[in-house]
Design brief:
single chain; about 180 residues; about 65% helix
């Protein structure tokens, strides 16, 4: 293969890559503009609106509103639903769905009312009972929801912009520090 043929092949490859890049930049915005709340719904996770309300109250119990917004106000419940639907396997999704039912059943058994109807102390007691339960699915549900609530809260825009201090490099370096013997 001569140098002339090699240059032609490189030009063809460059032109092909350039055409793909231009085509992608033209198509991507039209594709992204088609996104809406309806097109981004949880298709793999079947949760009723009453269960969504229940989840919102669970996250409000885990991180309640004080002088700063709580997990419910920052949308941690929506974060949890998105994470469960998009990032977890079918088994975890089933544990999550059964856990929502278990929370309400336990609240009714303990207090005669649904979890949403309970006051904050009763809600906290229900969650504490679930955390010490012998049922591994109940414990797994609570562990999953607690972890995702904390994650959703910490990555929310409010926390990231108002409560966290940005440091370009984590930690500090002190090169010359006297050492005590």
């Amino acid at each position: 293969m001569s140098i002339n043929q090699s240059n032609k092949m490189q030009r063809r490859s460059a032109i092909k890559n350039l055409a793909l890049t231009i085509g992608g930049t033209i198509v991507l915005p039209t594709w992204a503009n088609a996104w809406s709340k309806e097109t981004l719904q949880n298709h793999s996770l079947s949760i009723t609106s009453s269960q969504e309300t229940l989840l919102a109250e669970i996250v409000a119990t885990i991180i309640p509103k004080t002088d700063t917004p709580g997990a419910k106000e920052l949308g941690a419940d929506k974060f949890i639903l998105r994470m469960i639907a998009d990032c977890y396997d079918k088994k975890s999704q089933d544990i999550f769905a059964k856990g929502l039912i278990s929370v309400d059943e336990l609240a009714k058994k303990e207090n005669g009312k649904t979890f949403v109807e309970n006051d904050s102390k009763q809600r906290l007691e229900v969650l504490k009972k679930m955390s010490t339960s012998q049922n591994s699915d109940e414990k797994g549900f609570l562990h999953l929801v607690k972890g995702l609530t904390i994650d959703g809260y910490l990555v929310s825009e409010y926390v990231m912009t108002n409560l966290r201090i940005y440091e370009m490099v984590p930690g500090r370096y002190h090169g010359c520090v006297p050492i005590k013997k």
